[in-house]
Amino acid sequence: MSALLAEKLERMVNGVAVDKLYSTIDVVKEDPEMAKFRFHIANRWINGGYTRTTIKDFYGAKKNHAHETPFVLEADEPPLLLGEDQGANPVEHLLSALAACVTASMVYHAAARGVEIRGVESRLEGDLDLRGFLGVAKDVPVGYQNIRISFRIDADASDEEKELLIEMGKKYSPVYNTLFAGKTSVVTELDKG
Length: 193
Known about the structure:
By secondary structure, this protein is of the alpha+beta class. The chain is about 35% helix and about 30% strand. The longest helix has 23 residues, at about 90-110. The chain is globular, with a radius of gyration of 20 Å.
């Protein structure tokens, strides 16, 4: 293998193997079935508001892929909300998923454009009124009423370019678009087996 070819295959921007990213894009363009993924989890109630989620594998690129080690996520409520504080509560997990997904989307799309990012930090806040959850006020939404995300981006880019990176993160984030596009169908059923 020539030195030029080796350099091209190892080109990394923001921790992303850019040439592999472009190869993946080419494969997906040729075979759209390669782009279809299915993520799944198993969740078990422990006690009160305490649950444990296990993530072992996912389906993508036409086959199942096992994680090297299963991931375990614990969720609970703080004592103020009658829990035992065994983990972040579900709405905190949602903020974490939103932050991680928008950030990753931003970083990958910046890498594809050759924009090097040295660091990204974000702070998220969400306003939630428990009267909705408790069912005591019909006019109060059950979920977050507002979510604010503040990004600090360390890159050789103008503020305008950084704002464009944030917009790319939102535009291409599956979590952001699932939450805010209003087009995701959620079907619930009782497993009688």
